Amino acid sequence: GLRFHDNTAQEGDTMTFLETNRLRLRSVEAKDADVMYDYRNNEICARYQRGQVKDFDGICQLVERRKNDQMSTEASFLAAVALKETDAMIGEIVVMPQESNISLGYTFSYRHHRKGYAFEALTALTALLHSRCPDWDFTCFVEPENAPSIALLKKLGFQLMGYLPSKKSLLFEKWMSPETKAEIAQALTPC
Predict the structure, then answer these.
(1) Cα–Cα distance measured from residue 118 to residue 108, given in angstroms and rounded to the nearest whole number
(2) Model-level pTM?
(3) CA-to-CA distance for 191 and 188, rounded, in angstroms?
């Protein structure tokens, strides 16, 4: 089952956003920097990432800057995905709300691929955000070569809209209004 936390629920200095059977989505902590450095610099994860900070000092600065993030539709937030039993970070999800759209980005450690964690975390998080913003569009941009992420998004119920040349990415959507789909379709190259 899912347990949702409002932003006042804190354990120590860490904010818990929500919990699933196996996972805890929480704010990032200093202890997460080592894990983030490991997977952000591993080719399996890094090959599809654009613009992510990869040097250790930069990751430490990112964690320091984002440690007080709150789940909100007012500003972007970074959620650490951690194993509930050990609180060990296994990945991250960034949520970027803007103008009735929530764009999601995610990276999960290569050490934890193929265990259903990304599906579990993203299912819970998108359901919670959609319940709070039922009229908002959800989007994800994915490199055309990233077959695992494309399969994950399809399993999550996202639909491929096409290729967006300006981002050099495939655009996936969920819960998008017909009006928005029509607007975006003009900027897309069909797949």
Answers:
(1) 7
(2) 0.89
(3) 9
Give residues with Cβ within 8 angstroms of 77, minimum separation 6. 66, 69, 70, 71, 94, 95
> 101-108 and 137-142: which strand pairing?
parallel
Whether the CB-CB separation of 168 and 158 falls below 8 Å is answered with no
**Can you tell me the distance from the alpha carbon of 107 to that of 51, in angstroms, rounded to the nearest whole number?**
13
Give the tens place of pLDDT for each residue, 114-173: 899 999 999 999 999 999 999 999 999 999 999 999 999 999 999 999 998 888 899 999
User: pLDDT class for 188, splitting at 50, 70, 90?
Assistant: confident
DSSP three-state, residue 151:
helix
The residues, ordered by sequence, that sit 6+ positions from 59 with a Cβ below 8 Å of its Cβ are 33, 36, 37, 40, 53
Q: Which two tokens stand for residue 13?
A: 């200095």
Which secondary-structure segment (H or E) carries 117? helix 117-132
Cβ-based neighbour number of residue 181 at 10 Å: 14
* Phi and psi, residue 34, nearest 5°: -60, -45
C-alpha torsion 8→84→81→107, nearest 10: -170
Binning the chain into helix, strand and coil, the percentages to the nearest 5 are 30, 30, 35
